[in-house]
């Protein structure tokens, strides 16, 4: 069984908002993304970024899972679609995530199911959402 070694990466983000502008989020590695706020505006709003994090983590984890299972050479496209439902009561939050994962490639259904199950187990974002992370406020 082949195991993919993951090199640690600096993580973190800072959002900056001017009085009249839109938020801009910069990663500790220098990546930058603008954040939109109007419902019809194209781009990512904060909830889209949450869904994007989960979907990206799941597809990357599926690739790791396929490698761990020794079938990476047969892996085709992996797609994870994530949507959510906001809670009707306070506090404002996503109450339910809807996740659909599709694994393409030359696999039987049991292998596809194993890749998906392993991806869900590997994914740091989904594991964090299933847990109860502690938010620690620090002075900036």
UniProtKB/TrEMBL annotation:
InterPro entries, alphabetized: KH_dom-like_a/b, OsmC/Ohr_fam, OsmC/Ohrsf
Signal peptide residues on this chain, from the entry's feature table: none
Protein name as catalogued: Osmotically inducible protein OsmC
Origin species: Labrys okinawensis
Phylogenetic classification of the source organism: Bacteria, Pseudomonadati, Pseudomonadota, Alphaproteobacteria, Hyphomicrobiales
